[in-house]
Amino acid sequence: MNRSKFASLPPAAQAIIRKYSGQWLIERSVAGFDTLDEQVLEQLKSDPRRKVSELSAADLESTQHVFASVVEDWAAMSPHNRELLTLVRAEIVKLRSAN
Questions:
Q1: Dist. CA 16–CA 47, nearest whole Å
Q2: Residue by residue, what is the 3-state secondary structure of 2-67?
Q3: Domain boundaries, the chain
Q4: What pLDDT sits at residue 98?
């Protein structure tokens, strides 16, 4: 829906859309995806033909260094990329401080 269409809706309809979008929608989407992830992981673990493994703490730390290097290389490619990374990191800080 574009802005002009939204603006043409009655105030009550706009209020409903505002109420059930944004943060409300994000929270429900995250909860749904978390539940789905857990269900799929359990299905994989229960399948005798599959082996599910998890990274050790050392392996996880090692991968974080690799990921950070890739992100830094991407950010160094342009000022715009650096600005986007800065904005994303600021949003992450806000989200984590809210929880």
A1: 44
A2: CHHHHHHCCHHHHHHHHHCCCHHHHHHHHHHHHHHHHHHHHHHHHCCCCCCCCCCHHHHHHHHHHH
A3: 1-53, 54-99
A4: 76
- Contact between residue 52 and residue 44 where contact means Cβ atoms under 8 Å apart: yes
Query: Which has the closest alpha carbon to 84: 70, 94, 71?
Result: 71
Distance CA 36, CA 33 (A): 5
Say what the pLDDT of residue 23 is: 84
Angle formed at CA 60 by CA 49 and CA 41, multiple of 5 degrees:
30
Confidence (pLDDT) at 99: 64
Would you say how long the chain is, in residues?
99
Residues of the chain with pLDDT under 50: none
Cα distance between residue 60 and residue 54, in whole Å: 9
Tokens 């994000």 locate to 26
